[in-house]
Design a protein that fits this description.
Elements: H1 12-16, H2 18-27, H3 33-41, E1 48-52, H4 60-64, E2 69-74, H5 77-86, E3 93-97, E4 110-116, H6 126-135, E5 136-147, H7 152-161, H8 167-176, E6 180-189, H9 193-203, H10 206-215, E7 220-231
Parallel strand pairs: 1-2, 1-4, 2-3, 4-5
Antiparallel strand pairs: 5-7, 6-7
The structure holds S-adenosylmethionine.
């Protein structure tokens, strides 16, 4: 039996390699550029936060430290259970099975929506965006944390593996739907070369991963991102 909600978009990195994905999450943005940008636009102390496509729940404790209530929504059953285990001592966090297209939430109940590395938000995701319009409260903000494949070392690697990825088309799609785009530069910082290698091998095709590891020394990777924002 397939243990995932209908409409889930395959996410091979975290579905197949959750332990390595945890290493990746620990390496992402050690300077907290993403959190500072989001807090600068719509702070979450006292708010209701939705982490959509929350995976194994890595980001839930960060939101829970200041929010009144945090809801993680995730379609993959194993990841729902992992996320629930992670937050079992946090009384203000709930993890629910579900998808962007069918959110298990009441209308006008969310102040801040965070979706990170969310393949399910791109051209064709109008049903998910309509659901967001339903659940977001006036005064809230929705954030989609996305790659910026046009810049940086990571962007160059990403284009090599995803040759048909069309950043301009994605940017235009979101602009048409009324979303703004903020460009930021973050980095990956790993504790060891073995960690960096393991993550590169789950994110890129095998031949590309070999080439990347042969050309790139050290423990850091500069990484350009787009933070997509919609205010309610
Ligand atoms: C690349 S992972 C990122 C996980 C998490 N946001 C993080 O940063 O650790 C993408 C996640 O989106 C989930 N996902 C896939 N399709 C989805 C959908 N239609 N609605 C909501 N989440 C979805 C996947 O199961 C996976 O956990």
């Amino acid at each position: 039996m397939v243990d995932r909600s209908a409409g889930a978009i395959p996410s091979p990195n975290i579905w197949r390699f959750p332990a390595v994905y945890e290493v990746e999450n620990r390496a992402v943005d050690p300077d907290h550029v993403i959190e500072a940008t989001l807090q600068g636009i719509r702070p979450w102390p006292g708010a209701t936060v939705l982490d959509l496509g929350c995976g194994s729940g890595f980001h839930l404790p960060v939101f829970a430290a200041q929010a009144a209530e945090v809801v993680g929504v995730e379609p993959h059953g194993t990841l729902v259970r992992k996320a629930r285990r992670r937050v079992k001592r946090l009384a203000n966090v709930t993890v629910l099975p579900g998808t962007a297209q069918q959110l298990p939430l009441r209308a006008a109940s969310v102040d801040v929506m965070h979706a990170r590395w969310a393949y399910f938000f791109g051209p064709g995701c109008e049903p998910g965006l309509r659901e967001l319009d339903r659940v977001m409260r006036r005064g809230g903000a929705a954030f989609v944390i996305d790659n910026d494949a046009t810049r940086s070392t990571f962007g160059r690697w990403f284009r090599r593996t995803h040759a048909t990825y069309d950043q301009t088309a994605i940017d235009r799609f979101f602009a048409r739907q009324g979303w703004g785009a903020i460009r930021r530069d973050i980095r990956w910082l790993f504790a060891s070369r073995a960690e960096l290698e393991a993550v590169v091998r789950i994110e890129f095709a095998p031949g590309d991963a070999d080439a990347i590891l042969a050309e790139h020394d050290g423990l850091e990777v500069d990484y350009a991102i787009t933070i997509r924002v919609r205010r309610y």
